[in-house]
Sequence to fold (262 residues):
Amino acid sequence: MSEVADWSKLDQPQILMFVFHPREDWTPTPPGTSDHSIPVADGVSISGRFYATSLDAPSILYFHGNGEVVYDYDDIAPIYNSIGANLFVVDYRGYGQSGGSPTFSNTVSDARTAFEYFRDTLKADGYTGPSFIMGRSLGSLSAVEIASNYGDELRGLIIESGFASVSKLLLYLIPIMTSAGLTEFERASLARLRSITMPVLLIHGEYDEIIPAEQAQVFYENVGSADKTLLTIPWAGHNDILLRGMDKYFSTIREFLLKHSP
Fold:
């Protein structure tokens, strides 16, 4: 268990408006997938979609980036399936068909609830492959929360276009933000990284204009895992990694999953 920050201190409207950009889009459930509603509070559930390929394949619990929703992965998930992985994508409050409104504190707590739902659903439905956690961009917050608290139940952590420090993220996103009062979150972020000892794969665009590539290097240097890989996609920014390096992106993920599956 890593050091705990008081996330509610960041749940201020003038901060949240820069960090979370919910969308309520929805698409019909594609063939071979299943939709899920995960209770996270009284009268509030978050949406998820499970793109399955086989019972014995590795399963990835995936937290998407800001401005995205589960249904944006209808076209991407088949690629994960093609490399032999089940993909379970989860929204945040206010995104997709999820209820409520997103904050830092409920995003962190909902991540734990989502993981326990994911774990229990796999077991109940007869899935036997190993479990991995993945976060893209904003999803780093949720993925790291799970990796630092459920390490013995996971085979690996994958971070794409992510951040090592919440305090640095806020300074990137909010021009008028100062570092005053953020020391607690800088310290807690790095402590959580140091508590993670599972295998880690980091993927980042060389010219990421939202979360600079230096954050991937800080993550790499501070994460406690002895088995860690940093893949930099040349010429890629924050939102065009797949356009710039799809083959390398998915071949590296495939190798990571194979290496750390029984």
